[in-house]
Amino acid sequence: MTELTSWVPEGVDLERPSAARLYDYLLGGAHNFAHDRELAHRFLKAQPNAREIARHNRAFLRRGVLFMIDHGVRQFLDLGSGIPTVGNVHEIAQQADPGARVVYVDYEEVAHAHSALLLADNPLADIVQADLTRPGDVLGAPATQALDFTQPIGLIMAGVFHFVAPDRDPAGVIAAYRDAVAPGSWLVFSQFTRDLMPAEMDRVVEVMKSSRDQMYPRGRAEITALVDGFDIVEPGVVPTAAWRPEPGLDDWADPRRSGILACVGRKR
Ligand SMILES: C[S@@+](CC[C@H](N)C(=O)[O-])C[C@H]1O[C@@H](n2cnc3c(N)ncnc32)[C@H](O)[C@@H]1O
Fold it and tell me: What separation in angstroms does the CA of 74 have from each of 175, 190, 206, 228?
């Protein structure tokens, strides 16, 4: 059965589940369809912690944005931004400084359409529908060009590089964004790994083969190499729940169960 609602953008293939809509469902959002929910239930079977993993990734993203704000960053390029949910980057940033500017980037139709709707009245936030593995398309888009590249930019690559296949040259892609921004810019990065829960991760990779977003987990050493050119701040490349957790908010008895490795670094 196909659901038709007024916010479904034209051209979206409802039969083919996407990572954006799966993640939306895991976070309790409403912008997903029957096939996405079916995928989510198989994902949850493969990785029963999936909802907590999503929440901890989202909480890490929030702490990373606040960290960059504390370090003076007022403009952000959020690559693989997803379907807006609670605690979006522009909300966090503009609450701290109403003049903060945010450019979101996602290639998924629902993520783009819903972001565009949400940001229609926000002159300092915009969405670019593009494939982040084509940095020229992203960096050349008018919305991105509105950022001031002579000043530090907060690059955000949260929960997205596990969708970037090795043959898309992930290191080269990250380097292209790093080279485009001014020294003193920041990177907030997180991605799935086999290091923490290998059996569950292997099952998840299998499940995601039936979606349009295949998954490529990476180990700590590989992630450290990917973020070359950024000085990684303490505590280094760690599970999301262990990255500067806020007591009372981010508690998890075993942070390794957060499944995703995260780090924050400053461009030299
Ligand atoms: C799991 S969500 C993460 C959302 C958000 N960054 C967060 O951490 O809460 C991953 C998003 O990346 C997007 N994505 C994956 N590969 C992409 C690519 N090559 N270009 C643009 N977006 C991509 C997906 O469509 C999805 O919306």
Answer: 22, 21, 39, 23
pLDDT digits (tens, 9 = 90+) for 116-139: 999 999 999 999 999 999 999 999
Query: Which one-letter amino acid corresponds to residue 77?
Result: L
Q: What's the rounded mean pLDDT across residues 33-61? A: 95
Tell how far the Cα of 103 is from the centroid of ligand 1, in angstroms.
14
Q: Where is 55: in which H helix or E strand?
A: helix 50-70
- Ligand 1 centroid vs 111 CA: distance in angstroms? 9
Q: What is the DSSP letter of 6?
A: T
106 lines ligand 1 (CB under 6 A): yes
Output the pTM of the full model. 0.96
Strands 260-267 and 238-239: antiparallel
Long-range contacts from 95-98, C-beta under 8 angstroms, 24+ separation: 96/66, 96/69, 97/69
Atom of ligand 1 at shortest range from CA of 58? 9
Please name each of the domains of the chain with its CATH number.
54-201+213-267 (3.40.50.150)
